[in-house]
Amino acid sequence: MTPRLEGREKVTGEARYAFDYPLDGVAYLAAVQAEAGRGEIVSVDAEAARGRPGVLAVLSCENAPRLASRSNGELAVFQTRTVSYRGQFVAAVVAETPETAREAARLLRVEYASEDPDVRLRDYHPGLYKPEIVNAGLPPDTEQGDPEAALKDSDVRVDVTYTTPAEHNNPMEPHTTTAHWSEDGTLTLYESTQGASTHQRTLARIFGLERERVRVVAPHVGGGFGAKGTPRPNSVLAAMAAREVGRPVKFAVPRQQMYATTGYRTPTVQRMRLGADADGRLNAIVHDVVEQTSTVREFVEQTAAPTRIMYRAPHRRTTHRVVRLDVPTPSWMRAPGETPGMYALESAMDELAVAAGIDPVELRVRNEPDREPESGLPFSSRNLVACLREGAERFGWADRDPAPRSRRAGRRLLGTGVAAATYPARLNPGRAAARAEPDGTFTVRIAAADIGTGARTALAVLAAETLKADVGRVRVDVGDSSLPAASVAGGSSGTASWGTAVVRACEALRDRLDGAVPPEGIEASADTAEEAGAREPYARHAFGAHFAEVEVDADTGEVRVPRMLGVFAAGRIVNPVTARSQLVGGMTMGIGMALMEESVMDGRFGDFLNRDLAQYHVPTCADVRRIDAVWLEESDPHLNPVGAKGIGEIGIVGAAAAIGNAVHHATGVRVRDLPITPGRLL
Ligand code: MOS
């Protein structure tokens, strides 16, 4: 077990985040958000703002420079007069101090020709359409057999609709950019990003620069969860402003402005239909999903994708439908797709267990497939049943009385619930370099991102192991696009993907090490494009099982989670201490999803009403009592040289369903609309 390498730097405040870089002559940006929900900007009156002492520039659609690429509507900042959603950035002030910039931003007068925005997701919305593909490049619909007839023929049926609200990642560090143009026209961005290489590519395209002319620096990132996985408008805005004023510019998106501008998890409406025989063997699974995107860019989550791989059933269908609304574009939030999708599937499985009178652990075991159900591919490894059994044993499931409202302690109703988890095991191509130094130490270089996950430490462990060196002799440089290019910290792919590149580079270095290291050192590098592209056809997924206990106050409807256990099978766990933290973090977000997180759209004017952490509730220490995350030893030869499947996201997948199922067990009330707030329970 290796403690987080940058832990000391972080707790002593030495670790530099994007806003912390001291640059000479730095100026500060404040942005103005659209007050119209849809329409056109008629005029921008900047006179009062420009007259403020200390104001360096005002930017808007009236004077902004033309960007070389405007294909991504979210990033085409100030390129048109069109307002696509309330809260969109429409103007910015650059000033000597942040206070001056904010004050001057308040003085801008923007006139709009506005129309009523259409912002309400309804499952019967007339604009619903079938997208070409959904996130991760998957087909929107799949169908096998005759699910409608099979549902009719089933002894036990569940036909229910769940809704999940929009949710926002709320990283501690806001989306932040410090942008600096050198005399030679090179752009440096100190950025809070999950991918220095991908951020570099996107910003280079937007500004029409060669890739080498953009450098993205992000050695420390204060959380992301997906929100920093793709560049956001703040980065373009800071870069544009820095070029305009000829000085470095800093812009940290205030939390109040974050809800409209940095992405969110789409709300969903999900109809789940399950049909089974009297023994609970599934005959049909139908999962129909409705979600939203914006008018500027299409983003569609793969919400029903996990339903394609979880349980055996001869007749099945999944569909995704989306509607373009006058809203910001949804984006990634921890396990985009799998999180809301598995909430619905695993809640419906619980409803089926109740309807059929079968234990919910046993029901899942009975529907275990021997191959991936829709593709027919063999699993590289699948240990869902082992996770369920191990969890049931550790949690004390055997003593459970399945009858709802069967346990009570004073005014508290007690219940327990279970749900399965899954997440794909991805391998993305990339590069790495490893170097032996003459002093006997090693340096590994890769443009990976450590967003608080412990990625740097895991890579050091892998390098040390491959080089047969003590981990204390290995230094790992990450978070800089000038390092060998790496994939984004997303899709729980980091340890597997970057780890493969690091292992290959270290193997190549090891082969070249014999005898003394010359003063200039010895370096070797690796590119895993071929290896990542040539994998054998297997279905690769991590699996897990969540067990939750809840206490529901019978008078107030308040739900507490005294105990939660997650058991995971995710291939090799490289560094237990940081891995546990990832899994517990995901499960904690599951508590938030189940009980409190909700971004509320203003149905009349547009934009989310949430403005801060007083209005967007996430679990705090008092909400989290005993959470245990454990894992099974799992050795899978079909993954990658690391043997890891990835653990960044699976902790949240299914967690909310386990809590919802426990609430039903405690109270007999099935809440199908998240979050399970007291008002929905009473
Ligand atoms: Mo994660 S939501 O794939 O960054």
UniProtKB/TrEMBL annotation:
GO molecular function: iron ion binding; oxidoreductase activity
UniProt feature coiled coil, ranges: none
SMART domains: Ald_Xan_dh_C
Pfam families: Ald_Xan_dh_C, MoCoBD_1, MoCoBD_2
Record's keyword terms, sorted: Molybdenum, Oxidoreductase
Domain (Aldehyde oxidase/xanthine dehydrogenase a/b hammerhead) ranges: 12-116
The keyword Oxidoreductase is annotated on this UniProt entry: yes
Domain of life, per lineage: Bacteria
InterPro entries: Ald_Oxase/Xan_DH_a/b, Ald_Oxase/Xan_DH_a/b_sf, Ald_Oxase/xanthine_DH-like, AldOxase/xan_DH_MoCoBD1, AldOxase/xan_DH_MoCoBD2, AldOxase/xan_DH_Mopterin-bd_sf
TM ranges: none
Record-given protein name: Xanthine dehydrogenase molybdenum binding subunit apoprotein
Organism: Actinomadura hallensis
Classification lineage: Bacteria, Bacillati, Actinomycetota, Actinomycetes, Streptosporangiales
